[in-house]
UniProtKB/TrEMBL annotation:
<protein>
    <submittedName>
        <fullName>NADPH-dependent FMN reductase</fullName>
    </submittedName>
</protein>
<feature type="domain" description="NADPH-dependent FMN reductase-like">
    <location>
        <begin position="2"/>
        <end position="146"/>
    </location>
</feature>
<dbReference type="GO" id="GO:0016491">
    <property type="term" value="F:oxidoreductase activity"/>
</dbReference>
<dbReference type="InterPro" id="IPR029039">
    <property type="entry name" value="Flavoprotein-like_sf"/>
</dbReference>
<dbReference type="GO" id="GO:0005829">
    <property type="term" value="C:cytosol"/>
</dbReference>
<dbReference type="GO" id="GO:0010181">
    <property type="term" value="F:FMN binding"/>
</dbReference>
<dbReference type="Pfam" id="PF03358">
    <property type="entry name" value="FMN_red"/>
</dbReference>
<dbReference type="InterPro" id="IPR050712">
    <property type="entry name" value="NAD(P)H-dep_reductase"/>
</dbReference>
<dbReference type="InterPro" id="IPR005025">
    <property type="entry name" value="FMN_Rdtase-like_dom"/>
</dbReference>
Length: 195
C-alpha cells in the first residue's frame, strides 16, 4: 500500500494549513483506503534556514535535523502539499524544507492543495516548478480553496473555519486517486534508482 505524506507547508502562528491537512487526511481515510496517508507538519521539525555545507544533491547531510528530515521524507511514496500563497509564491518555510534534501524527493508523485484569496493558484504553479527540479511528478488535478468561499469567519482577523464546498471534496478525491496511481506507477523507477 503506498504511503503518502500530507505536508503542511506553513509554520506561521494562526495558519489555516493544519486544518486543511486534517481535512485532506479525513477525506483520504473515508474515501481512499487504498493508501496510507499521514500528516507531516513542517512546524514539528523547526528546520533552520538552510545550513548544510554541501548541496543537497550530494547527499552529504552534516546536521542531525537534516538527517531526521531526510529519513521522514524517504518513507513516503508520494505527497500532498498543502500550501497557502504568500506574495504570489509558497511560504519560505516550505521552500527551505524542499531545499534541505534531494534524493529523498526523487521519483515520487505529488498533488497540491492550495488555499488563499485566489486558491493559491500562483503558489501552486511556483511549487510545480520547484518539484520538477526535485524529480517529483505533480498530478494535474489541484484543489484551490478560496478564503471567500471555503472558509467561514466570525471575526475577520481569526483564521476562520474550513467549510469546503461539495465540489472541493470531489476534486480532492480525484487528486488523491491520481497521487496514489502515480505513486504506484513510479515504484519501479524508485527501485531502479536504488539498484
Amino acid at each position: 500500500m503506498p504511503k503518502i505524506g500530507i505536508i503542511v507547508g506553513s509554520t506561521r502562528p494562526g495558519r489555516r494549513g493544519r486544518a486543511v491537512a486534517e481535512w485532506v487526511a479525513s477525506v483520504a481515510a473515508q474515501e481512499r483506503p487504498t493508501a496510507d496517508f499521514e500528516i507531516v507538519d513542517l512546524a514539528d521539525f523547526a528546520l533552520p534556514l538552510l545550513d548544510e555545507t554541501h548541496p543537497a544533491a550530494s547527499g552529504l547531510y552534516g546536521n542531525a535535523h537534516t538527517t531526521r528530515w531526510a529519513e521522514v521524507i524517504a518513507r513516503y511514496d508520494g505527497f500532498v502539499f498543502v500550501t497557502p500563497e504568500y506574495n504570489r509564491s509558497i511560504p519560505g518555510a516550505l521552500k527551505n524544507a524542499l531545499d534541505f534534501i534531494y534524493a529523498e524527493w526523487n521519483n515520487k508523485a505529488a498533488g497540491i492543495v492550495g488555499y488563499g484569496l485566489h486558491g493559491a493558484t500562483r503558489a501552486a504553479e511556483h511549487l510545480r516548478l520547484i518539484l520538477a527540479e526535485l524529480k517529483v511528478a505533480t498530478v494535474r488535478t489541484q484543489v484551490a480553496l478560496s478564503l471567500h468561499d471555503d472558509f467561514t469567519f466570525s471575526v475577520p482577523t481569526e483564521p476562520g473555519v474550513l467549510a469546503p464546498g461539495p465540489h472541493q471534496r470531489k476534486t480532492l478525491a480525484a487528486l488523491l486517486d491520481d497521487v496514489v496511481v502515480w505513486s504506484r506507477a513510479l515504484q519501479p523507477v524508485r527501485e531502479g534508482a536504488l539498484a
